[in-house]
Amino acid sequence: MKTINLNELSFRLETQNDHYAVEEMTRDAFWNFWEPEKTICDEHLLVNRLRSADSLVPELNTVAELDGKLVGHIIYTKAYIIDDSEQKHEVLTFGPLTVTPALQGLSIGQKLMMYSFSKAKDLGYRAVLIFGHPNYYPKVGFRPAAEFGITNLDGSSFDAFMAYPLYDGALDGIRGKYIIDDAYMGLTQSDALEFDKKFPQKEPYKKRPISILLEQLSEGPREAMEKTNIKSLEMMTEKSAREVQMLPGMDKQGLDTIRRVLREYGVKW
Fold it and tell me: How far apart are CA 186 and CA 50, in angstroms?
């Protein structure tokens, strides 16, 4: 196996010639991670649509290369925080953040974020807000948006909703509701299936049912997990360990069992 030298990792803006390769890489990276009611992932379609969104920040649409090969991609759009006086405060969001499956776990995603964060700060942006893996993104400095007094549009807050100030005090005095481009919301499975025809045929991934985990939990933790309405092992990544630990009825033994089962089935949590 060839040794991976991340010192050779480089970044540049995405070009039109990259479009198909980026979409195919995104498709491969997210193929196993979609909501239970979906037939296939739609992240590759999302990338395609965001490129033409009014909110796109082309100066931050970045690819990562290693040995001349595409290994990562991050795409940014403008978002807003609306405070109680209806004033809009511009921020950024990104996603999908993609790393080619064969090289995941080598910090390429983190390096891609740090590179683009530096550029975003130089461009005058104040902060980045995302909905993402609540046990992954805190490793690079993301914090729950609730700590800054920022909520989802419906007023809700949860650990997967996070903020990253690009400089000290960037979010001081800014509280309110978070609004992102409608392009993130308007994806349908029929559109995703039609778009997917441009790529080599791939069998839909079959998620592992949450019953695999529930069967190994004692009564209290099992009832706690049943109330979350999580349908698959893969969707456990939407909940942070802290949130699961705080569920009424959850205990240390239950949490240890969850970690063990997810590890056995290769779900990073």
Answer: 11
User: What does the pLDDT look like over 131-181, one tens digit per residue?
Assistant: 999 989 999 999 999 999 999 999 999 999 999 999 999 999 999 999 999
Q: Which CATH architecture has domain 8-184?
A: 3-Layer(aba) Sandwich (3.40)
Q: If DSSP states are collapsed to H, E and C, what string results for the chain?
A: CCCCCHHHCEEEECCHHHHHHHHHHHHHHHCCCCCCCCCCCCHHHHHHHHCCCCCECHHHCEEEEECCEEEEEEEEEEEEEECCCCCEEEEEEEEEEEECHHHCCCCHHHHHHHHHHHHHHHCCCCEEEEECCCCCHHHHCCEEHHHHCEECCCCCCCCCEEEEECCCCCCCCCCEEEECCHHHCCCCHHHHHHHHHHCCCCCCCCCCECHHHHCCCCHHHHHHHHCCCCCECHHHHHCCHHHHHCCCCCCHHHHHHHHHHHHHCCCCC
* Global confidence as pTM: 0.88
pLDDT attached to residue 1 = 42
Write the pLDDT tens digit of every residue in 158-168: 999 999 999 99
Question: What was the pLDDT predicted at 6?
Answer: 77
Q: How large a percentage of the chain has pLDDT more than 90?
A: 84
